[in-house]
Each structure stands twice: as C-alpha cells, then as structure tokens.
Amino acid sequence: MQQQAENIGSEAVAAQAVSGKTVLELFGFLVVIGFPFRILGATGFNAKALEQTVAGRIVKAMVGFVIFLAALLQVPSLLGLPTGW
Known about the structure:
Elements: H1 2-33, H2 35-42, H3 47-52, H4 54-78
C-alpha cells in the first residue's frame, strides 16, 4: 500500500512539473508576441494603448501565426524527415 502511495505521489509531482513547463513555454510565446509593443513602449509610445487597438490585435495575431507556422515547419526536421524542397 505504501509503495502505491509513493508511485502516485511521484506521478503527481511529474504532472506538476510538466504543467509548469507548459505554462513557462506559453508565457515565453506570449512574451514574443508582445515584443513589438515593448519596443514601441521603450521608444516612448503608449504600448498598452497600441496593443489594445484593432491594429495592435491584428499585429499580435500575425506575429502569433508566423511563430506557429515556423514551429509547424520545424516538425519534419524533428522527426528526421527530409526537409529540402
């Protein structure tokens, strides 16, 4: 019985580690999407207001799509498939 409890405990810790890693990866993705607005904010513009406009949301969506497309195109090389066109 003690052995089963230890196994369940280690699985719970592993699940927490995986979910924590996923959250950090998602946070990194969100930071990259907001990067153009950080640059504009550093130059003196109101980055938060720009980010909340329709144009800002379109820019964020486009940056997110480009990152998604780059990740999707990386999959064949990770699987060891030929990547030359």
